[in-house]
Every structure is written in C-alpha cells, then in structure tokens.
Design a protein that fits this description.
About 35% of the residues lie in helices and about 20% in strands. It is globular, with a radius of gyration of 14 Å. The chain has about 150 residues and is an alpha/beta fold. Helix 1 crosses helix 5.
Amino acid sequence: MSDGSQPIRPHTSAGHSLLNQSLILVAEDEPFIALDVALAIEDAGGQVAGPAASVKEALALIGTAPIVAAILDLNLSDGDSSPVLEQLLLAGIPTILQSGVSLPGDLSERFPELVVHIKPCDSARLVVQIAALITNNGLAAGKTAGPLP
C-alpha cells in the first residue's frame, strides 16, 4: 500500500468468514469500482446483491432479496441514490455511502450517523467496516432482514 501500512485481510481464522454469507447490496455505476467492491465482499465470505448500476436496479433488488447491508455510491447512472439510501436506512439496514463528492447537507442532517467515504476507497476497508456495522446491528446470515416492502 502506498501509505506503508499493511493491507487489510478480510478473512478470519478457524474457517469462519468475516461476512458469514451475508447478502450485501452493492450499488455502483463505475464497473471497475463495482467489481472491486463485489470481489472484496466475496473474499470476506459474503454474497453480493448486484452490483446495481442504477437506482431502479437497486430498488428492485432490495424489494426482492434479503439484504443484510449495503455499500452505495451517491450518484448512480440514473441519478442520486437517495431513494435507495432512505429506504435502507429507514428499514435499519447498515449502509456505507461512497462518493466522489461530499454528502449533500440535507442527507447529512437527516442521517447524521451515516458512514460516508470519499472515493477512492479501499474496498477491503469498506468490507471490514460493513462487517462491524452488521455485527453492531445484530444481523448475520440466517438472521436476515428479508426483502423490504
């Protein structure tokens, strides 16, 4: 790594995985970033819903899949991902937002505890952080939130 630190290793020991087959929504319209995040989730033992490149795709996925957590880009191919973000957060689904720009004031006021990363983001670090949010939220594989209405 360029900062001299050791890379984050998302695996845990004794045959257990960090994400324990949890289904993580990835909403990202940049293909290389989406692939990097998806691979980091899979490397940590998670499952990927998506990647969804649009708000429409992401909303369809959260309406049909038992999403445990999400990593979203603020700007998707068909616009601002706020509708997806709001649906996930109001349902109590742990979410990390990544963006090339800072969070709009209205969203930061409504969701002050939202975890936001400015791109470029280290995907392995995002995965470690989403795993911690899942643990703190009490969700794990076999104990999923179910599709959102």
